[in-house]
Write a structure and sequence with these properties.
There is one protein chain. The protein is α/β, with parallel strands linked by helices. The protein has one domain: Alpha/Beta hydrolase fold, catalytic domain (Rossmann fold, 3-Layer(aba) Sandwich). The protein is 20% helix and 19% strand. The strands form three sheets. The protein has a twelve-stranded mixed β-sheet with strand order 1-2-3-4-6-5-8-9-13-14-15-16, with helices on both faces. A hairpin with a 5-residue loop joins strand 15 and strand 16. The protein is globular and about 70 Å long.
């Protein structure tokens, strides 16, 4: 795919123009009307643009970033109609929010071939169904701004822990504390990847240029608000609204975005943004935090802003479940996830490894404080809500979170879907072998007589149906399980 990048004169954003269509489809004869317009997309187009803004004072934990210029990268995949779209076909738009580590384009536009044909990409599947999708990299992720004294400084990765007394430090350049294990200590000096000690630190630990976490949840809420406005302006949805999709930690950010009671003075008019969302999806959601930002036990958030990682693809299941869930990990998907993360992070791609001058590549993500998504907040949600989760997911994003969100939500139109043989990364996961062909019934979203393609196909079909009609399997409410063969059945009201 050929791309060119240009700064438009007088414009406030950068566009990555795509000169070739991606995933061109051959529409069925019924796709075009007698007037020559298209009722169904004939292809999709992939592009990236940037949303500039000035960091408001107090938005980020470190005040040195107050007032600085920043920008958000937005990865858009839109439907293309070769003969123009028929007027009777509505415009639909969705904003998809990534999780704690993997970037937006990696999460939702994974360019990994699917065994049954096409790609694992969620965005392309939605675009082929006529849905315009926007997957941002939130601040500190991908090609969005990271700041010279923020995540661009390898010396802002974690240092060793304080001595057991919690006060004294044996490292001459400093020590660190962390508030959660997912932001580990000593990433500057770790012996194995991800390590920065050789590349780019040159064998010396460095003192931090920023001594606090990079972001808080409300930092990302402001990002999401910008992308909602941008998506509405660009896609011109027929109802003037977007469907908001949050995955993993991104679901936490989405939940906070839809919290009408947010008291942050930097984020006024929450009700106005809630009114711009027609439906919401919580996928593999984190859940169960304090409503407002609260210091952890001991009183200290992480004392460093930068987290680095490698890989990021589908994880392993216990041996008995891995054997039962044949074909769950699509061959090559782990490598593709890592490759796309490196592609989105050219600076991190030059870090890591134990041989000087030969980096192995890492991906960078921000350290942040979590809050604002719990039963109290979920009880105040108003948009129709789809909660979808893999039954093989594990804490802290276990299926129990899905139950809690669904039970707390008070709106009439709410649906809970649990997908067998789906782990935390079920949006990329497949199926192979005899289990994929149902002995009775048809895989949800599939073709009678055809095998189930796996959890990734269920997730895509569920998003498409929810965005278009606010239903799952034809129902606007209820609880469902998708079994190991992909067949959906109702399990509760």
């Amino acid at each position: 795919m050929s791309k060119s990048k240009r700064r438009l004169r007088g414009a406030a954003f950068t566009v990555v123009a795509v000169t070739a269509l991606a995933g061109v489809l051959t529409p069925p004869p019924s796709a075009s009307s007698a007037a020559g317009c298209d009722k169904a997309p004939t292809g999709v187009q992939v592009s990236d643009h940037f949303l500039p803004f000035t960091v408001p004072a107090g938005l980020m934990p470190d005040p040195q970033f107050d007032g600085l210029s920043a920008e958000l990268q937005v990865h858009r995949v839109q439907p293309v109609y070769a003969n123009g779209k028929c007027h009777s076909v509505p415009n639909r738009a969705a904003v998809l929010i990534h999780g704690r580590t993997n970037y937006g384009p990696t999460s939702f536009d994974l360019r990994q071939p699917a065994p049954e044909g096409g790609e694992l990409s969620v965005q392309k599947a939605l675009a082929r169904a006529g849905i315009d999708t926007f997957a941002p990299n939130l601040l500190g992720y991908g090609r969005s701004t990271r700041f010279a004294h923020g995540l661009d400084d390898p010396g802002n990765a974690s240092l060793p822990a304080y001595n057991p007394d919690g006060i004294t430090c044996s490292n001459p350049v400093g020590c660190d504390r962390t508030h959660v294990p997912v932001f580990p200590l000593n990433q500057q000096g770790a012996a194995q990847d991800p390590t920065l000690f050789t590349n780019p630190l040159g064998g010396q630990l460095r003192a931090h240029s920023s001594h606090v976490r990079f972001a808080r949840v409300d930092t990302f809420v402001r990002d999401i608000r910008q992308v909602i406005d941008d998506a509405i302006a660009r896609a011109q949805p027929s109802d003037g609204k977007v469907t908001l999709v949050g995955y993993s930690a991104g679901a936490q950010f989405v939940g906070r975005t839809l919290y009408a009671g947010n008291p942050n003075p930097l984020l006024p008019h929450s009700d106005q943004y809630i009114a711009k969302v027609n439906r919401v999806v919580f996928a593999a959601s984190l859940f169960g935090f304090d409503t407002e930002e609260t210091p952890p036990p001991g009183g200290s958030f992480a004392t460093f802003p930068l987290h680095v990682f490698v890989g990021g693809g589908p994880g392993n299941l216990p041996p008995d479940r891995e054997a039962a869930c044949t074909g769950r990990v699509v061959a090559g998907s782990r490598d593709q996830v890592a490759a796309q993360n490196r592609e989105e992070d050219p600076v991190g791609a030059q870090w890591g490894g134990n041989i000087a001058g030969h980096p192995t590549g890492v991906a960078r993500s921000p350290v942040f404080s979590s809050y604002g998504w719990n039963t109290e907040v979920a009880a105040q949600l108003t948009p129709p809500t789809l909660v979808i989760h893999g039954l093989e997911d594990a804490p802290p994003t276990s299926p129990a979170n899905a139950d809690a969100i669904y039970n707390a939500a008070q709106m009439t139109n709410k649906v809970l879907v649990k997908v067998a043989c789906g782990s935390h990364t079920f949006l990329w996961e497949g199926c192979s072998g005899t289990r994929c062909t149902p002995t009775s019934g048809t895989p949800y979203g599939g073709t009678p007589g055809a095998p189930w393609a796996g959890p990734h196909s269920t997730f895509k079909a569920a998003l498409i149906e929810w965005i278009k009609s606010g239903t799952f399997n034809g129902a606007p409410r209820g609880q469902f399980t998708v079994n190991e063969s992909g067949v959906a059945s109702a399990t509760g009201p």
